[in-house]
Give the backbone structure.
Amino acid sequence: MANQPDTTLFMLISVDGKISTGDVDDLDVDKDFSRIAGIKEGLSQYYNLEQQTSLFSLNSGRVQAKMGVNEIVSDVKKLPVSFIIIDNQPHLDSNGIDYFIKRSKKLYLVTTNKDHPAFNRKEADKLEIIFYEDRIDFVDLFKKFKEIYQINDLTIQTGGTLNAELLRSGLINHISIVVAPALVGGKNTSTLIDGESLHSEQELLNIKALKLVKCDVLENSYLHLQYDIINETEVEKTL
């Protein structure tokens, strides 16, 4: 779409599509895969590829809080990356906001929460708050990214529910996934695409076909898969 950035969903997943090691916030692939023999040996390849992604990175407050950013108060390394954080509850506290202001080239905080702690930092030069009254209109938001903020490309690294909403809104153009040699399991453990299940044949239009662009076999049984998303879904009618 010409009126949105070119977007890539970049994630680390298990062979069964899990992006977490369990259904509680204490369990996390970044933390846990690094402790498991047969998986930890090749994990650095994911982080090396992450360094090659867009200089605009879209994340969720929930994922970032899970990674512990609210507890980091010193030794924050500055990056040339601008972070876009979707955070309604909020999951980020004042320390988390300060962390991203220090770490980011610019922080874009998107929220529906008028009491979000980011408003206490609204005078910060490197902070842009994008506020929606009731719910975030992601199509409108991505249009703003392109037309107002001149964001031409961005990397998406969020949870399965938000990934699903963006995918079904036609806002993801490419998939770049690093597959770890692991099976996690668990019906309540988040996958690459979660969200509401489909309930009818009419909703088959929400399924997105993929076109394989590249498949790289990495070391230690890891894979790097890259796809283009076919956002115009066509479903044949049943006879």
The chain has a mean pLDDT of 96.
